[in-house]
Design a protein that fits this description.
homodimer, 415 residues, alpha+beta, BirA Bifunctional Protein, domain 2, Rossmann fold, 2 domains, five-stranded mixed β-barrel, five-stranded mixed β-sheet, aa-tRNA-synt_IIb (chains A, B), EC 6.1.1.15 (chains A, B), aminoacyl-trna synthetase (chains A, B), Proline--tRNA ligase (chains A, B), ATP binding (chains A, B)
Chain lengths: 415, 415
């Protein structure tokens, strides 16, 4: 991609109305654009990041047997009357032309349970794992922290259906492992902890995945021995001890909830009378779990964690491009070298953004730091027949031959 | 994918409430599930088809310089007051918790024009081509024809921004070519015609892409010489003659509108005062075009066109799987052959769905015809060490060695 053509030009100043670090960098770097509070457009750079996060999540969901579907956002209100969730604050209400009362999906239990009920009946159909990557709408009174808490946001939601609690428990463990994989792959692994949280009215616990950062809105107590945590809301219930090792030396930390997994037991199955016939011909209730990850929230959290005062430092697995090639000279012969390098990188399958703009060196280097592509290549009069390569997360530029540059890129992205 | 695990089991009977051929087959074959009129869930098989259509569209949009973005569905009503579209019937109205009046996006001119205005200003920023693949909401009084006219549906919408009419015209031609590529690639090429349609209040013409089928709701007059058509609504305006060759021997046909391209001139630019500064420092209005394709509508139209009385015949470029492997025997030694073939096909990178269910041969063969995977492989006691291969669009089964089967599959999908 030629940066001269990229929509849109990177801003020279951070947006005034955004307070959170993630929104400042993401808006200034033209990853996202704010339409109104909690409602953002994903611009080309931002959408590339989201698509990469989406693909990592999809791979990990498929690996644990998830089947991908896509449910609508328009829901009949009547389904929420059945589950007694028709009065919850975050529902957007609307009406069809024929007068039917509708809401926008803030989650999909009310849709997936009747769907599954229509399609399955026997123990042979279980277990069943269905997920989607789809848009949720929540009518938050105060949307805040950039894309961390939106009114409209993409979410992966997985629902599992089981013949009994034992079967559910086994799968719940697999999802925990898959979630750890996802957060490791997107670059949040070291700071993300399985966290005991409230189970609401119908389950003792649920679990969150909390990423430690001063920007977090949640407070968690961390057990450094077990690498797990307890949400503050639950700390009394566990008597200020780690639920696994009983250690009482827990560390209070600020954190962002990047995912949650929830035993639903038979709450929604009972509401819609979702049952199966077991081998003995008996009707039994189906045990459920649900498992969410907000894609924008993951992206925002990655920026909170992986950034310095100059801008974002994208983890390589979700960077919008692999390489940022920058031409720092206006002479035709230097430009020719850069154009050749751009074509050559593309031919070798490298995802490259090429700063061919007529901007000053200062602007170009600041922009590169802001948008945070992992590898920066500079071609200028000074580099002669070589290329300067610098990793975004290092201060040390390397002056390398073109072949060595390609070798270094390949090595970095294959490791 | 093992069919025994696939969500969900194919129905033995077509749905009673669906009238259109596409909805009958798609619902019975478990590609889609109806939540309410005009609102469908995409089940695993259907979502795979949609994703393939999406990817073809994306490739063709990128090939003509399109940059992909993703705009939200929640829109401020105030933007529609500016364009005087706040009273149009199909808008869903809702309100935020803080009392802000919102609508759901039925199209995105009201969002993209202010977005572009915020980000560009100079002739150097033009032309600009932005597209998204996103969900639209239209509060249709009567949703009908399965997924052909929905209340919620995925759409690709491209918007182009130009410094003058000439530049717009050139790009409009490129989009026409890209659209022909898309419809050819998804299997609608032979029956899809560029069609002159009304330009509304602000343009002489727009163009539709109309696919000829008795299931169509539109009437078009076809010029077989030029391979173009005129929508019935425009036939008086062109005096019953082909606008290109003046031929007056036009054939009346039923057709489905699978895409449209529209010169917007400066209608929306004027509304939001979207201008650019030209080389002489003068402010000039930006000329726009918009270009839509409904993904579900393409899928539904493909089914209308590519089906027989037994079911769907997917074009190879958008089939949910490449090969349908069917085991027609319960003996362990035959099952072992089938399992080996399944593993071997997967290892060779073939997208295969394997019917390992304990169903009768009749059910399995009927289901295979219904879901319409292009290549069917049968392993049974009769096939011995060979495999029976049949194309869905042919009556002739072939008895082939395993090597020859792989060769035939490769040849078919590479041609």
């Amino acid at each position: 991609m030629r940066q001269s053509k990229l929509f849109s030009r990177i801003s020279k100043t951070p947006p005034r109305e955004e307070i959170s670090r993630n929104a400042k960098f993401l808006v200034q770097g033209r990853f996202i654009d704010k339409l109104m509070a909690g409602v953002y457009t994903y611009l080309p750079l931002g959408l590339r990041v989201i698509k990469r996060i989406e693909q990592i999540i999809r791979e990990e969901m498929n690996a644990i047997g998830g089947q991908e579907i896509y449910m609508p956002a328009l829901h009949p209100l009547e389904n929420y009357i059945i589950t007694k969730r028709d009065k919850i604050d975050v529902l957007f209400h609307l009406e069809s032309a024929s007068g039917k009362k509708l809401v926008l999906g803030q989650s999909h239990e009310e849709i997936i349970v009747p769907l599954v009920k229509k399609h399955i009946s026997s123990y042979k159909d279980l277990p069943l794992y269905l997920y989607q990557i789809q848009v949720k709408f929540r009518n938050e009174l105060r949307a805040k922290s950039g894309i961390l808490r939106g009114r409209e946001f993409a979410m992966k939601d997985l629902y599992s259906f089981h013949k009994d609690e034992n079967d559910f428990e086994k799968y719940y463990q697999s999802v925990q492992a898959a979630y750890h994989n996802i957060f490791r792959r997107v670059g949040l692994g070291d700071l993300t902890y399985l966290t005991y949280a409230s189970g609401g009215t119908f389950s003792k616990y649920s679990h969150e995945f909390q990423t430690i950062t001063p920007a977090g809105e949640d407070n968690i107590f961390l057990c450094e021995k077990c690498k797990i945590a307890v949400n503050k809301e639950m700390i009394e219930a566990v008597e200020h001890r780690c639920p696994q090792c009983e250690n009482d030396d827990l560390k209070l930390k600020k954190a962002i909830e990047v995912g949650n997994i929830f035993p639903l037991k038979t709450k929604f199955s009972d509401a819609f009378d979702l049952k199966y016939i077991d081998q003995a011909g008996q009707k039994k209730p189906i045990v459920m779990g649900c498992y969410g990850i907000g894609l924008g929230r993951v992206m925002g959290t990655v920026v909170e964690i992986n950034s310095d005062q100059k801008g974002i430092i994208w983890p390589k697995a979700i960077a919008p491009y692999e390489v940022h090639l920058i031409l720092l000279d206006k002479q035709p012969k230097i430009k020719e070298i850069a154009e050749k390098a751009y074509n050559s990188l593309q031919k070798q399958g490298v995802q490259v953004i090429y700063d061919d703009r007529l901007e000053s060196a200062g602007v170009k280097l600041n922009d590169a730091d802001l948008i945070g592509i992992p590898i920066r290549l500079i071609i200028s009069e000074k580099t002669k027949d070589k290329i300067e390569l610098k990793f975004r997360n290092s201060q040390q530029p390397l002056l390398l031959s073109q072949d060595k540059v390609m070798e270094t890129i390949t090595e970095y992205y294959q490791s």
